[in-house]
Design brief:
This protein is 43% helix and 6% strand. The chain contains 5 helices and 2 strands. The protein has helices at residues 23-30, 39-50, 68-88, 94-98, 102-109, and strands at residues 13-16, 58-61. The chain has a two-stranded parallel sheet with strand order 1-2.
């Protein structure tokens, strides 16, 4: 399910039966339950107010090993990692980062990614 469905008041689980190639479309599908006034948001606010564990939105994909869907899942997962790194500067997923030694975590935290064009690559104005 994607556009036009409001499932946010009762759902916190998303099952992607047909994984789209585009991570943006997947975000749109997840957005059916991740929106203002959603069950997740109400539960999250209550958890913050009472010092309880924060809830999650659980996203599941359906793919049989060795099939086209399995390949698509692997490709889209990599695309999502690249997108996260571009948008948020995430070098590696948080769970993997937490498993590393504190010194490696500090070293990774010190990496500065700058996606701005370098000054030498700026185009000149036409004359």
């Amino acid at each position: 399910m994607s556009e036009g469905l409001n499932l946010h008041r009762a759902c916190r689980d998303v099952v992607l039966f047909h994984l789209d190639w585009n991570p943006g479309r997947i975000e749109q599908q997840i957005g059916r339950v991740d929106r203002q006034g959603s069950d997740w948001m109400v539960t999250c606010i209550a958890a913050l107010d009472h010092g309880r564990e924060l809830p999650t939105i659980n996203v599941h994909t359906v793919a049989i090993e060795g099939t086209y869907d399995d390949l698509r899942t692997a490709v889209v997962t990599e695309r999502a990692k690249v997108l996260r790194s571009q948008l948020f500067g995430e070098i590696i997923p948080a769970a993997q980062l937490a498993a590393l030694s504190p010194e490696v975590q500090r070293e990774i935290a010190g990496i500065q990614i700058d996606f701005r064009p370098s000054k030498s690559n700026k185009q000149r104005s036409p004359t």
